[in-house]
Automatic annotation (TrEMBL):
Residues 108-120 have a biased composition (Polar residues). Residues 121-132 have a biased composition (Low complexity). GO terms for molecular function: single-stranded DNA binding. This is Single-stranded DNA-binding protein. The keyword Transmembrane does not apply. One of its GO terms (cellular component) is nucleoid. It comes from the Bacteria. GO terms for biological process: DNA replication. Residues 108-158 are annotated as: Disordered. Keywords: DNA-binding. The keyword DNA-binding applies. It comes from Aphanocapsa feldmannii 277cI. The gene is ssb. The lineage of its organism: Bacteria, Bacillati, Cyanobacteriota, Cyanophyceae, Oscillatoriophycideae.
Amino acid sequence: MTINSVHLVGISGMDPEARYFESGTQKARFRLALNQGLDEQGKQKPATWVEIHAWGKTAEIITDQVSKGVKVAVSGYLREEVWTDRSTGEQRSKLLVVAQRVECFRATQQGGPPQSNQGLTQAPPAQTPAAQGWAHPAPQVGPAANGWGYGAASTGRQ
């Protein structure tokens, strides 16, 4: 048995790019910067960048809710893309994350309620971790819910 499950929290490094297909399906992609902490001298280490792809309803919501600079939590799975480089003829590949669920964290005003993005981004039930026997706790919303001084505005169904 193998498990292909990814959970990341980072900062969106770009506004999502959307593509629409003749079938009516939408695809969205954006890059997520993951903070690597401080080095021995106390300086910020370079961020790790991860490409995120999404399809269908998840892509629609990402296009509407995610923008550059927003803190985003992504749950999904790894996928390898393989192609042939046109200029060299060499086979190339990269790993990316296919998002099944996305939550945007919005800064709150001092003492005020978190801003809500009022969307939901979750794969069809047969593809969700909960449908595979994995349980997810209900999200905590509000400034005390996490250590960043942000309130979480959930975009996923529970």
